[in-house]
Amino acid sequence: MSSRDAQMLAREQGVDLVEIAANADPPVVKIIDWGKFQYQKMKEDAKNRKKAREKQSELKTMKIGLKISDNDLGIKVRKIKSFLDDGDRVKIMVIFRGREMAHKELGQEMVNKVIQRISDETEIIVEGKPQFAGRNLSISIRRK
After folding, report:
1. Would the pTM count as exceeding 0.85?
2. By C-alpha distance, which of 55, 53, 51, 61 is closest to 141?
3. Which domains are seen in the chain, by residue range?
4. Structural contact between residues 17 and 29, judged by C-beta atoms closer than 8 angstroms
């Protein structure tokens, strides 16, 4: 079709004539609504960015003391669940202060208590065993 006919056809339909391949012989053009095309492209790019962000999982850290109250522990557990729902991995650190180092079994009980509370509602995978590093007992978890 000649370029003049294509331009007239585009004007009649109230849309735009967009050049797709300028180097081709003859040049390739398309009759489209440019605003709608740009909007759809923008939506698709946003969707792709969201998918890419979901695939990247971050490592979040939650620090817990041995003397934490039940209410505060509930808040921390809720925050850990939200991290897991976002697709992130969570490193739970139980921090020992002063003479608490003499009771390492209390730290193990705290880790088990936190994991139990989280696994009641969310399926999780515990990565490895709890490890001591200085005055911290840490374990990493992720969503199944």
Report:
1. no
2. 61
3. 3-54 (3.10.20.80), 57-143 (3.30.110.10)
4. yes
